[in-house]
Amino acid sequence: MTKQFKFTLHKKDGAARRGTVHTAHGDIRTPAFMPVGTVGTVKGLYMDQVKGTGADIILGNTYHLMLRPGAEQVAALGGLHKFTGWQGPILTDSGGFQIMSLSKIRKIKEAGATFSSHIDGRKYELSPERAMEIQRLLGSDIQMQLDQCIQFPHTEKEAEKAMQLSLRWAERSRKAFQSVSQPGHGNFGIVQGGTDERMRLASAEGLKQIGFEGYAIGGLAVGEGQKLMLSTLDFTTPALPVDRPRYLMGVGTPDDILESVARGVDMFDCVMPTRSGRHGQAFTRFGKINLRNAKHADDPRPLDAEHPCPALSQYSRAYLHHLIRSGELLGMMLLSWANIAYYQSLMQGMRDAIDASKFEEFRAATHEQWKMGDVAT
């Protein structure tokens, strides 16, 4: 295991990048998709299944883990790696997104956020310093600054205020992270500023002056739509350091990810693969397949006979349709497994294409296959 956190950029193909993030608990091949393990579990999957899909890293959530079972309790039990049984890298988000979603039961001040637990109503305070302390107790390899994320649509004044507050919180988060030696662990700053170019560039510049091991792009995929999201990336990613990983938070669909890699993004996370799986939707190289549809009731084909994941290749669409329509847990588990496996094969396909200087060919072929698959499936 390496004891130095660093990023190695191996290859560029246009703006698309192939690299490796080196952490205390192993390497992360980029472009990378991080399955979301909000409360210490990727819903519906065993950790060895997650690893078997090709995932190098998973994500945990500061807000949820601080409420239950509590960061101090996880630390006493050996940290999040030992607690969950996941031995690879873990990224923890800071709780900023969850604070946004608690708009009716939280207050934002300079010191931090105060809110009531959605579980039992208990009052909590989350400052930049406490957010970093919780992540340190959890033992995550990548620890995010506390930021203020705002929902779309918003006014320019609201975006400016949140961006400036996030920059001040970034400086405090950085000082808190650096106050304790954590070899092999990294701290990421988060670019905010809505979809406004001036604000995004100001945020990026402020974060670069503070200095982080990596840089995230937050405040997107919050209702602005793909077109605005991608146009925001067009001017945001070039403003970030070339020698540091770039992480687009909370994104997204396979198409979102493919298009974002084309714009220079390295890392992604999203609940979509497992959430969609629980609701009967599969993501495959042929496009999306809704297993609730009656047309699958007599279909003996698997989702993808050529894929190495058993959930994609060994169960008929008819059986999966039956499980989902019957409300069986196995159906939700199999589709969640299948979706995580597809996402990881998509990431591997992009890594291979960048290595071969054929990313644009891969991008065009993938779009064409999804288009044809909409008809075929």
Provide a descriptive summary of the structure in words.
The chain is an alpha/beta fold and 377 residues long. The chain has two domains: 6-270, Queuine tRNA-ribosyltransferase-like (TIM Barrel, Alpha-Beta Barrel); 278-376, no CATH class. The chain has helices at 47-52, 62-67, 71-76, 79-84, 96-101, 128-138, 156-178, 197-210, 226-236, 254-261, 272-278, 310-313, 317-325, 329-355, 359-376, and strands at residues 6-13, 16-23, 26-30, 32-35, 58-61, 90-93, 106-108, 113-116, 123-126, 142-144, 186-191, 214-217, 246-248, 267-270, 281-284, 287-290. The protein is globular and about 60 Å long.
The gist of it:
The chain is an alpha/beta fold and 377 residues long. It is 43% helix and 19% strand.
Whole-number total of structural domains: 2
Radius of gyration: 20 Å
The CATH superfamily of the largest domain is identified as: Queuine tRNA-ribosyltransferase-like
Task: Please bin the fraction of helical residues.
Answer: 40-55%
What is the β-strand count? 16
Low-confidence runs: none
- By oligomeric state, this entry counts as single chain
Instruction: Write down the overall geometry.
Output: globular
Averaged pLDDT, please? Answer: 95
CATH class of the largest domain: Alpha Beta
Order of strands across the biggest sheet? Answer: 4-14-13-12-11-10-6-5
* CATH topology name of the largest domain: TIM Barrel
Number of helices: 15
How much of the residues is beta strand, in percent?
A: 15-25%
Give the termini separation: 44 Å
Report the biggest beta sheet as strand number plus sense, adding barrel if it closes.
8 strands, parallel
| Content-based structural category | alpha/beta
